[in-house]
Input
Amino acid sequence: MTKLSVNINRIALLRNSRNIGIPSVTAAAKTVIAAGAHGITVHPRPDERHIKASDVYELAKMLTVEFNIEGNPFQPPFMDLVCDVKPAQCTLVPDAPDVLTSDSGWDIPENRDRLLPIIQKLKDNGIRVSLFMDADPALMPLAKEVGADRVELYTEPYATAFREGKVASVFQQYVLAAKAAQDVGLGVNAGHDLNLQNLAKFCSIPDILEVSIGHALIAEALDMGLSNTVQAYLKILSDL
Ligand code: PXP
Output
């Protein structure tokens, strides 16, 4: 079964709009875990506009499921934070500091020489490394070559095509990218704009190991409640 890692950045974003500590990021993580999620994802950014370094340390102390920390390794203090906390997985994302949300995968040829030592350092710390990638089959051998264990396919183009009702050719691109990654020995994760409507089709791609879902899940939880929403996602994944 594909694992569900719940991205709780949106809880921190809401919390940061007042100085009274609600909603609590750790309480939300406990609810998500109690509902059966397999993992918790956070994406600390240098401006701490949602998840703060202090959240990362608090979560690391209490988590009983896989911790996935995402972010740009070239923006301090990301690497120090990750190597200190040693999560199960680190997903490297090439997002600019001022970008609203991650909006593309790695250009590996452009970043190869900087990525090699970073990936090695994370692996030396016992951390599994995933690279956020566009769904381009030709890029997957390059991700393997720089030492990644997994790729996370950037699913925004899939989600947009799904919403517009013209998903067939875009979906095929993801099928081919996942296969190209698996053929060179990479595990395949996926994330961005996945939701209760588009998840089942995406995860019909064989052997998607993990999906990381935040924005839609937290929005849906306003109607359905956080536990019920996590369980609705888990039901989709277990029914596949
Ligand atoms: N993967 C990466 C690398 C991300 O930056 C994000 C958003 O923080 C996600 C997955 C989750 O996307 P969404 O919040 O749209 O579910």
